[in-house]
Amino acid sequence: MIANIIAVAIIVFWAGFVVLSVLKKKRRERKNGIPAGCYSCKSFQSGMCKLHCEERK
Question: Which pLDDT band, with edges at 50, 70 and 90, does 37 fall under?
Answer without folding.
Answer: low
